[in-house]
Every structure is written in C-alpha cells, then in structure tokens.
Amino acid sequence: MIIIKTPEEIEILRKGGRHLAAVLHKVKEKIKPGISTKDLDDYAFKLINEMGDSPAFLNYRPAGAKVPFPASLCVSVNDEVVHGIPNKERILKEGDIVALDLGLKHKGLFTDMAFTVPVGKVSSSALKLMEVTEKALQVGINAAQAGNTVGDIGHAVESFVRAQKNSQQYGIVEVLSGHGVGRAIHEDPYIPNFGKKGKGEKLVPGMVIALEPMINNGTKNVTLDDDGYTFRTADSKNSAHFEHTILITENGPEILTKTF
Ligand code: MG
C-alpha cells in the first residue's frame, strides 16, 4: 500500500533529508587512500548521533535476512554493487570507487541517500560510470512528475543508460530497485530502474520515494556474497550507485536529501 505523507510528516522528512545529506557529505570528505570502510561507518554513526537522529540500517533486518545489518553505513567498493558491510580490514586505496549508502531516522521518519565517489585518481572508465549513474538518477528524478507512473521513471532511466554512446558497456541492475520511504525504510511502491511508459503505480503529490539506479560497467548480473548482504557484479567489473529521497509535488519532484 502506498502511503501519502501528511504536511507534518513532509516537514519532518525535509529536515531529516537535510541532516542525512549533511552527514553523508561529511563522511565523503574523509575518503582517502588508507582509511578503512569501518572508519567511515564509525564516523557516520557519530555524526548521526550528534544530530539526535538514528541510523536506519543498523540492526535492520530485511525480509529473508538471516542476521540484521551490522552497521549504519553501507560501503560498497568497486565491483560491490550495494550493501557492502564496513570492515576495519577493508582499506581504501587509490583508484577505488566507493558507494556510500545511508538511511537516517529523524523524529520517527526515514530518508535514504547514496552516492559513489573516487578514491584519489581513478580510471577514466570509472569516472564515466559514476557520471552516467549520477545522470541516470537525475533523469529518473525528472520523470518523477505527479501524473506519471513508476514505469515512466524506469523507462526514463533505462532509455538514458541504453543511449550512452561510448566504448563502455553498461548493465542496469534489475534485481534491486528504488522504493517508497518515510514511515519505514522500505515501503511500496517498488521502483525498478527499467520499465515501460505508463505502466505501474501512478505518482501523486505527497508520495515520498527513493530513486536509486545501480549501474554496472559490464553485465547487469549480480551475485550475493555469503555474508547475505554484499551484492557484487558477476563479471567483477565496477558498479556505481546514486540515490535521493524525493517528494512528489504538484510542481514537480522535490529532492529531500539535499544540503540546503
Ligand atoms: Mg534505498
């Protein structure tokens, strides 16, 4: 069931979204060769607590998971697509690309955000992958207009990625998708990064959704590690992930996870 948020809830989500964006950008500033993914998680946890908020992913147990997620921040490096578990032994090095994904609970309501950043100097193909994925998110956001459907968003993202004309092959991850968010970290509707125009649920003002294209620099296929969380590309090529929490309004999409 799709939950339409009340004006009071929307105000809380706006504030929470700004907190989340502020935290994630501060964590980003820590990224450099030599830091562990656990250091990034510890820092995110500290910042969230200082704001009086709570991390949404820590101890979150998705349907079917054997154990709850053990960290605040998902840190997915290179071929890891999403849900990488922070680890003090996992040290970032020059040339890596790192996806940071964070959920935050502010006054009982959830927002969700992710981006992928380079560690030092990275390959031109990695830079292009991040650029294409970030633009794919923006294209998806632009399609998130009241009166459009979930399929219109997927169609826009898919068409944009398929239209890329360079020497790289891009795979759109299909087994993971965007989602409604707000009263829970994952709500209806399910929002794939591919689709058909006019299909799926209609977008109406007051809906809050997380859009999150995950684009691989090769096959769309992914595998799940034995830890039950880390998705990685089946061909070990890089993957990128960008996400914003969006409010559908009569005047177009409003990004809630922004720093201003
Ligand atoms: Mg999400």
TrEMBL record:
The EC number of this protein is: 3.4.11.18
Q: Does the keyword section mention Transmembrane helix?
A: no
Q: Which GO terms describe its cellular component?
A: cytosol
Give binding positions for substrate.
83, 186
Do you know which SUPFAM superfamilies this protein is assigned to? Answer: Creatinase/aminopeptidase (SSF55920)
GO molecular function terms attached to this record: initiator methionyl aminopeptidase activity; metal ion binding; metalloaminopeptidase activity
Q: Which residues form a coiled coil?
A: none
| Cofactor(s) the protein requires to work | Co(2+); Zn(2+); Mn(2+); Fe(2+)
Quote the NCBIfam families the UniProt record gives.
Answer: met_pdase_I
Q: What is this protein called?
A: Methionine aminopeptidase
Organism from which the protein derives? Candidatus Nomurabacteria bacterium RIFCSPLOWO2_01_FULL_41_12
Upper lineage is: Bacteria, Candidatus Nomuraibacteriota
- Its encoding gene is what? map
